[in-house]
Amino acid sequence: MKRVRRIREQLSAHGADVFLCTNPVNRRYLTGFTGSAGTAWISADRQIIMTDFRYIEQVKAESPDWELVRIENLNETLKTLIDENDIGKIAFEADNVTVQRLEQWKEKLEVEFIPVSGWVEELRSIKTEQEIENIRQAAKIGDQAFAELLPKIRSGVSEIEIALELEFLMRRAGASGMSFSPIIASGPQSALPHARPSERILMYGDFVVFDFGCIVNGYCSDMTRTIVIGEPEEQHLLIYDLVLKAQLESLAAVAPGRKGSEIDAIARDIITDAGYGEYFGHGLGHSLGLEIHESPRLSKADHTVLQPGMVVTVEPGVYLPGFGGVRIEDLVVVREDGHEVLTSTFKELYIVD
Is 96 helix (H, G, I), strand (E, B) or coil? Predict the structure, then answer.
């Protein structure tokens, strides 16, 4: 398996004998095992999943190419494997292992522990065509659900009612769950980038931001659209058109060889030049896959060079306290010749009478 081979290359480069994968998402990526408890062991000649009685049959079904070791006590199992395989150095996921667990390992296991970071995440940043297809199907469900939801939106309905209906529509269409708790934010609430649905009733003059996604075969989607209730005022149109321009121009620049920070700067400069830079306080976008937020990011601080197979969001926003906000977000695959947009919902301002 290519993924395991890449980990073994990292082991060789760092002079370690074993990589212990404890992050559940990374473990799933490497092994295919979707259970909630287990540790993966990768060495030069063995690939093992250690888990308890509850998941024995699941590992057999999901990870047939992996050696299965049933555990009662992880530390005791690790000690046995270390002794059997003459292990001297173990690389572990520093971003996942707690200080307490590491201290226990050091106390019980006579090996050197090497903290590493990003070994699996770097692999996850470039998606296979099957991974992209899963994300595409999740995006398609989101588009369809939003199309079904729009005719039901009107003044007098609460944010939380809309959020529940949206989740129902996505699950009915085949989603296994939500990528994250949907954001339905109306009126002044829409100026909060991560507002939670509340009992607030939609009213005439409201911007309403919809930020949501769903999961298909473990992979997430993400999209955002903003509508207005009633006849838009000049301020509504000005802000919406500004965000749309920033979104379209930065989206058009997504291509291999471009840095995330360069793409971010395109949208940020447009909004700043219009006098609203202080109201765009988050990054332009992020990658996603098995998790809703992955690397790389489209942000001022991320200088990662985009490569074919990366999947990113493009989502500028302007948020005016006391008035409302606008965010428009598409899901994009970096391709050899540019990019492919997975989100198909229209971006013209939708007005609810």
Answer: coil
